[in-house]
Design a protein that fits this description.
With about 350 residues, this protein is α/β, with parallel strands linked by helices. Helix content is about 55%, strand content about 15%. The protein is built from 16 helices and eleven strands. It has a six-stranded mixed β-sheet, sandwiched between helices. β6, α7 and β7 form a beta-alpha-beta unit. α3 packs across α12 and α9 crosses α13. The longest helix has about 45 residues.
Length: about 350
């Protein structure tokens, strides 16, 4: 403005008042225009800064993956080993742990309640959870091992029950809609025994164990590590060996986590698979980890590891989907679930979205 005044006085003899007024207004217009442009630039910078802050916050939120785990299985062993956390840390993914849970039902409740993002379960409770409209999807799967001894129907050591046909008229403890109920029904089906001839008593593993030992039930359909604990520490006895319809292991994922954070979810699943492959080559280490995690004796931990067999998780292919669909349809026929589950749509969209 000083510059304007000086030049106005300097040339007042040469220009009329109206001319000077026009020049002044034009100059002020240029100043105002510059201010407006600078304000717009500042607003853009502030907007970009806010956007970057929001993006950073979103990234920070998405960089956390929460793993829920049962007693036994690959996830608690991966937690002890520490390699998964180290590996994901290089990808700026923080790992949090939730558990241990005594069975799939409580683990799935944790996923359903947004307290965990990934958990290891069997296919039966996983399908049952999806059928109940829980927000879950199928991540990686462990294909059935026909020779696995990780499921069994147990009786007390002094029981007169020697074979599945002896279960007629007896009480058998199972977890409702889970691996135990599925095992019992498949065994009865194989033996051509009508399911109504055996009474199912719905109990969690923590309640079923004392019920068997104290004689409240006659048998118990269950899985590892409960089998080895019952056999080695309570003199229980198997009346089945291999499963008549071997089941899949499932890495279940909270649906929103798979949609919103597919990169971290797939990274965690891949790391778990790699942990499994390492443990397959180091079974003694696997037993040691298991003994420490579950506070088991060395003998029990070694038998559990042997009975479970190799741990190998992969993304389900078309063959896996078809087999899981057959299981889901059977569960519907048996009225264990109330509505049909479409396995194709139940698989997490990780193969297509994780690369984004």
């Amino acid at each position: 403005m000083n510059y304007l005044k000086e030049h106005c006085f300097e040339y007042k003899q040469k220009f009329s008042a109206s001319t000077i007024f026009v020049i002044a207004v034009s100059f002020l217009g240029l100043i105002a225009s510059g201010c407006i442009q600078q304000t717009a630039i500042n607003a853009t910078i502030n907007s970009d800064s806010s956007s970057k802050t929001l993006t950073t916050k979103t990234t920070e939120k998405n960089s956390v993956i929460r793993l829920g785990y049962q007693k036994g299985g690959i996830i608690p062993i991966a937690r002890q080993r520490g390699e998964l956390e180290r590996q994901l840390a290089t990808q700026k993914i923080k790992v949090e742990w939730s558990g241990p849970f005594d069975r799939c039902a409580t683990l799935l409740s944790s996923l359903n309640g947004n307290r965990a993002d990934i958990g290891g379960c069997g296919d039966i409770p996983s399908i049952s959870g999806i059928a109940a409209r829980q927000p879950l999807c199928i991540g990686f799967v462990q294909r059935p091992n026909p020779d696995s001894l990780s499921n069994a129907i147990l009786v007390r050591g002094d029981s007169s029950i020697r074979k599945p046909t002896d279960l007629v008229g007896k009480k058998v403890a199972v977890n409702q809609g889970g691996a135990g109920e599925y095992l019992l029904l498949k065994v009865l089906e194989k033996e051509n025994i009508s399911s109504y001839k055996v009474q199912r008593v719905y109990l969690s593993p923590n309640d079923a164990a004392p019920a068997l030992y104290q004689g409240s039930v006659d048998a118990w359909a269950v899985w590892e590590p409960y089998i080895s604990i019952a056999e080695l520490e309570h003199k229980a006895r198997r009346i089945t060996t291999t499963h008549p319809a071997p089941t899949y292991g499932i890495m279940v994922v909270r649906s929103d986590a798979a949609k919103e954070n597919p990169v971290a979810v797939k990274a965690a699943l891949t790391a778990l698979s790699e942990d499994g492959e390492w443990l397959n080559q180091h079974t003694n280490a696997a037993s040691d980890f298991l003994a420490k995690e579950l506070k088991l004796s060395d003998a029990v931990a070694k038998q559990v590891t042997k009975n479970r067999g190799p741990e190998s998780y992969v993304f389900p292919n078309n063959g896996d989907i078809a087999k899981l669909q057959k299981t889901a349809d059977w569960l519907l026929e048996q009225k264990i679930i109330s509505q049909r589950v479409d396995i194709t749509t139940a698989v997490c969209p990780l193969e297509t979205t994780a690369a984004r």
